[in-house]
Amino acid sequence: PASVLAKDIKIGVSMAYFDDNFLTILRQSMQSKMKADGNVSGQFEDAKGDIAQQIQQIENFVSQGVDAIILNPVDTQGVKPMIKLAENAKIPLVFVNRKPEVALPAGMAYVGSDSKLAGKLQMEALAKLMNGKGNVMILMGELSSEATRDRTRGVEEVAANYPGIKIVDKQTAKFFRKEAVDVTTDWILSGQQIDA
To answer: What are the Periplasmic binding protein domain coordinates in residue numbering (predicted)?
Structure first.
């Protein structure tokens, strides 16, 4: 625990979006934990979905000499410049929630779920509820996110085991409620049979 550490610890945190509901909960939990630890402070930055802005934030953290960086990447395939910045500065880097699609060097880690397994579990539960038949629409997150691609792959792999289940359409809502409402409204208004 931080209470046994002698010095104050400064952590730079760059989040892909502040207005993503899940990421807001994640950010608030981190802030609460840092405050409870007493000698840990965080500088939280919103990349606003812009990878160039996120790289700039990491550069700023490095120049400020933070003790560690927590990164929720905008693009899980575009993390190499940020890894290099942290690695060159010898600052530990932890990716959270969105798994980078590159090998991580020593001193770096990923904390999050197995997205493909999550997709498989979702579809297994859905297939059971649907008694193995019906039309499915897939609402996806951001296409630049490993979680979106892997979760969708997991869903599709399980659905392929059920000849009575047909994936009729899949569209992105980029992890935003308003866009999800728009996409699902369009599906409903299209008149297609939707079972799930």
So the answer is: 11-195
Same domain, 105 and 25: yes
The answer on 105 and 119 residing in a single domain is: no
This prediction's pTM: 0.77
- CB distance 174 to 147 below 8 Å: no
Asked whether residue 196 is domain-assigned, the answer is no
Domain ends where: 111, 141, 156? 111
Same domain membership, residue 128 and residue 74: no
Tens-digit pLDDT profile for residues 105-137: 988 999 998 999 999 999 999 999 999 999 999
**pLDDT per position as a tens digit, 49-79:** 999 999 999 999 999 999 999 999 999 999 9
